[in-house]
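RECORD TYPE: inverse folding
INPUT: structure tokens
STRUCTURE:
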């Protein structure tokens, strides 16, 4: 969808429905985990460079079960491997939705700042004639102060 002016609302009822549906999705994935930073660091990573090892190892475990001891948890490996595909699909959709929400928030903040600039312009013009507005203009002015530039270092003689 091409970006234009965003003119929309989300009612309290719609927000409740959306949050309920997100909770419902979470309920369909009761096995999801939240890892601590320490747990994340301890895990053996299967990132993009190693992802191809998973299907090959699974194929070996499936086609040559005789090479493994009886204690090898092949059924757990099957579950882990089979669970990754739907979770990757879910993650891709969630990431697309999160990206759209992020982009919309960015656009909304930009639109809001255009309104803020216009309000600031009119409020500054009215601050000496409209009682009670001057303190608000001063509060708003803080957001438009330019930071002082660092003093330039003295020139070093050659």
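DESIGNED SEQUENCE:
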């Amino acid at each position: 969808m091409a970006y234009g002016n965003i003119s929309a609302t989300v009612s309290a009822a719609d927000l409740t429905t959306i949050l309920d549906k997100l909770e419902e999705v979470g309920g369909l994935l009761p096995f999801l985990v939240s890892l601590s930073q320490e747990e994340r660091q301890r895990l053996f990573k299967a990132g993009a460079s190693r992802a191809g090892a998973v299907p090959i190892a699974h194929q070996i475990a499936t086609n040559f079960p005789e090479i493994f001891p009886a204690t090898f948890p092949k059924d757990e490996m099957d579950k882990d491997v089979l669970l990754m595909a739907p979770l990757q699909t879910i993650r891709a959709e969630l990431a697309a939705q999160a990206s759209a929400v992020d982009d919309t928030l960015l656009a909304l903040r930009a639109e809001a700042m255009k309104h803020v600039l216009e309000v600031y312009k009119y409020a500054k013009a009215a601050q000496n004639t409209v009682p009670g507005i001057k303190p608000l203009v001063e509060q708003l002015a803080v957001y438009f102060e330019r930071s002082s530039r660092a003093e330039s270092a003295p020139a070093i003689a050659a």
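NOTES: The mean pLDDT is 90.
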